[in-house]
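Please go through this chain and its backbone structure tokens and walk me through the local backbone shapes. Keep your notes short.
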Amino acid sequence: MTILGFRVLGPLEVAVDGQVVPLGGPKPRLLLAALLLQPNVVVSTELLIEVLWPSSAPRSAAANIRTYVHSLRKRLADRDPGLGERIGSRASGYILKATPAEIDHISFGELAARAQDALGHGDAESALDLLDQAEALWRGEVLEGLPHDHGWGATVARLTELRLAVQEQRLRARIELGRTSEVVAELRGLVTEHPLREELWQRLIVALRADGRTTDAIEAYETAERVLAEELGTEPGPRLRELRASLVAPDTVAIAVTRPMAPVCQLPLDLPDFTGREEVVGELVGLLNDRREQGKPAIAVLSGAPGVGKSSVAIRVAHAVREDFPDGQLHVDLAGTSTSPRPPMTVLAELLRALGVPDAGLPRDLAERAALLRSRLANTRMCVVLDDAGSAAQVRPLLPGAGACAVLITSRMRMPDLAGATPVDIDLLPEAEAAELLKGIVGTDRVAAEPECATAILRHCGHLPLAIRVAGAKLTHRPGWTLRVLADRLRDERRRLDELRVGDLAVRASVTLSYDLLPMSAATAFRGLGGLGSVQFPSWVVAALLGRTHADDVLDVLVDAHLVELIGSDGTGEPRYRLHDLLRCYAAELRAQEVPAKARDATKRVLEGYLALAVEAADRMPIHFFGLYSGGTVAQPALPPGTERLVGDPAAWFSAERHTCVAAVSLAADLGFDALAWRLAAALAPYFDQRGHQDDWLHTHAVALAAARRSGELRGEAIIQRNLGQVQLYQDSYAEALVAFEQSQLLFDKIGDARGAAIALAGLGTVLRIKGEDTVALEHCHAALDQFSAAGDPHGEAVARIAIGAVWLARRRFAEAERWFTEALEQSANIGDRHREAHALKRLAMLRQHQGNLAGARERVDRAIAIFNELGDAHCVGYANQNLGELYLHSGDLAHAQLLLVNSLSVHRRNGDRRSEAEVSQLLGQLHEALSQPERSRTYSERALALWRELSARPQESALASRLQESAEASYSDSASA
């Protein structure tokens, strides 16, 4: 197994099996560095140009980058053929694919995190070992010797800061292990290098004190005090001052922290089956203790969706820090989601009574009560839990102003207007933690007996803790039920919320509390989103549901209420949102109670928006789609606001919206919007064709064909049939493709669309050529050429010329084939159709190969691949790689042939193209035979033979079977003679 390592923590290096790979000049090295700092992420060509040419880029910058990428791939592939594909090309840029263990700065971060966890669990020995491994990865400064791009500053600074933190943790671990004398010298050097870091001075003083060198420790404190005063004009912090006090009067410190013997504790029960949440609990405990050590109040707002477990986390944290806040723990339910939230005046009275203030001593004014609470809390270390807060205004009077108290606030609403508070989002449980929670309630044996049903229950609960608790309680009180019974009952979305109810626990009731607080417009949008299905969506969808131009304010309300989840940004930079499945079920219930016409109109506006954007994006695609995807003279719906931003990169928009658009086709058909269904499916075809999404293509067009037939739109049916024929052709379903193309031609003829009929005829010609019916195929291709010419479609003419040339090539009439291919190439170049130009080059390469001119073939296929890559057509790159791989095979360059053919094979398998898969498998069989690897050769050859049989390709099947038989006989003969 090849061991690959990318190193940026020092001079840039790439090592394969321990051997450093030469990377070439500074430009390829800078390019690789830019990719390594953002591994597994597409880095745009524009950004790479800025990195390589910060002042002014040459006109050939993009082409130069392709050359550097090719050079890097080749250098990697020279060490191992499979490594060349680690640097991938995308429409908008390039991506370096690597595992975390292969990149030193990622490994460094992971080792540091594991060490931090070990220290947190008191395992200093393991932590020190991990920290030593992390430090050993550094060979100098980050990307030493390379000019740094300004955009790398944050990453480089983060790595440098993390390294310093690792050095500090190493010292801490060694001190805890009693190795104080060996760390003092190192600490002396660090405080000299970083004199303003109080943590380092603290470590030095602790080490000196532990080593019995109290005088030196005092001197170190005095030096730190002087440096901080001179450089920052500040005094040492509380922790450093406390250390200084411990050097002269340890008893004083002990007396100062003495606390009352019987502090108040109002905390509810810390749930015995509380599961998971270690990370967020640890972060909150750390935050509270850090602020306590600084002598400042800590305020955290825990917000999240209904039923996500905010209160349980707050209670768990409050119990965890009881010893750190020994003056007491207060708990108040603010009833923020009820119809009558508790006013601050009443809550202040409750808190002050708990602190010993009698009723007679309660001020009558809100401001005075708040001031008295702040005064009582100022000199104490207490933890206050304010549960179910409705707004920042409700909690603001309840907060301390000074001292070292901690306040944990839970709310369904985010509180960006609460100054000084740390926001903490409580998310759904990860799958493993959700499973543990169910086991804790139901029992491990019961879950282990039906693991698949347990997984289904968790999926239907959407990993929401409240829903899991309800489901678990239901099973606990019905011991005769199997888990399958509940899983089956939860499967129906219309009944799911009814099932998730037991006693006073109910998901629907919990969500209702949040929904009832929404303003009217937000409630309307929430209901509308419930009708869109389980999809992600951008912000314009909410505006469309409301019939408005913009609705960002409404969306913000829903996000802050945790009824809509912001899940990130897509490839266009647009934020994307979703509804949790149970919230969507609730929203769909409410939508069903609306006026049907009003709800349908809202959904229709969204579907029309998607249709308008899909057609606009298809128009902007860099590749001329050989087909029809719009409704002709039918008026298109209006484009949503911000269209230029949304579809400026059309391929990125399609990629982001692909799954939502596929669902939208079915939704439109289900709601009876048949015209929208087939038109949207047709508009998706150009993208499906370019990126090879054939399953989505088939699914959407099956729905669209039925919709077009229901609507009686002959043009729609003709377009969809043509597109179906194309994808069926790709998947070698020749009988089905033939029927689809024939039906499409008849329908186009019927409505008088000559260009549409010509496109269908060209498809028929291709199917017939593949089936070996060359004469009829030629007739169809010439007829298509005539009709394209009459319709004034030069793009179609170029396609027809390539198709005619392909028939002549199949007949081995090379002169005629060359004439047609050359005419197609010239015509494509004249009209600027780069995609068709590449196809013509690829066909000319095949012609040169048949003529035995391998060098000429390679030159043309290289040009074709460059164009396909430039256009971002990975689908066609796969087919061109097949041609190039075959050429390398025949010229004896087996390493490059293997790399290209294996990549091509994966593309064909993904696309379901069995004919091409058979061709490549057969070529790989020949390749491994040449490499004297008979077993692998036979495996590939037998796979090819099986595919030829499936395709009823008798000539190919017979030829390969004969070759395999000859090979077997030769092998037997060699064995016998030995």
Q: What stands out?
A: Residues 249-261 have pLDDT under 50 and may be disordered. The chain is about 65% helix and 5% strand.
